[in-house]
Write a structure and sequence with these properties.
The chain has about 180 residues and is mostly helical. It contains seven helices and three strands. The N and C termini lie far apart (about 45 Å). This is MarR family transcriptional regulator.
Length: about 180
């Protein structure tokens, strides 16, 4: 049995088990399936490569680096924890655990929000800023090596615009 036979069988089985009351799913055609799988494969390999590069060349993980970048772009290098989680598209509990590890290393500190005692702020420390500045050249070099220099400027622009549209659709769906 070839992989095409398996795909056909899976598609047929999936279609055969569709509840009578529900509408027929809009299956991906062969070209859409090929592009979808290429996207998944490329995304996983890109994130793994970037993460591995951070482990080898930096004092922070990729997630920690992105958190420091968000803080560096905010006034006073401070954000509410909830805004940080939203900006990173991560769960609040995951960001809380990451911040706790970073706080133990002196990269960030948490404090009560001045306007709302229930809120918690996260502030980048001087050490966090030093680590961010030291990590940035290797991070940018890896992004170039694994993506920017692999794509034409048109492909890179199209990818960025496409993923911005996907992010907006996902945010709208989450917020509805």
């Amino acid at each position: 049995m070839t992989s095409n036979d398996v795909d056909h069988q899976l598609t047929t089985t999936a279609r055969g088990t569709t509840a009578a009351a529900s509408a027929e799913p809009r299956w991906l055609d062969a070209e859409q399936q090929r592009l979808w799988r290429a996207y998944l494969d490329g995304t996983v390999r890109f994130i793994e490569s970037l993460g591995r590069d951070h482990e080898e060349r930096s004092d922070v993980s990729l997630n920690e680096y992105e958190l420091l970048v968000r803080l560096s772009e905010s006034p006073d290098h401070t954000l509410r924890m909830s805004a940080l989680a939203d900006g990173l598209a991560r769960s609040r509990s995951r960001v809380t655990h990451t911040v706790a590890r970073m706080e133990a290393r002196g990269l960030v500190r948490r404090s009560a929000s001045t306007g709302d005692r229930r809120g918690v702020n996260c502030e980048m420390t001087t050490e966090g800023y030093r680590v961010l500045v030291a990590s940035a050249p290797a991070h940018v070099a890896a992004v170039r090596r694994f993506m920017v220099d692999v794509l034409t400027p048109e492909q890179f622009r199209a990818l960025g615009e496409a993923m911005a549209a996907v992010a907006e659709a996902c945010k709208a769906d989450r917020d509805s």
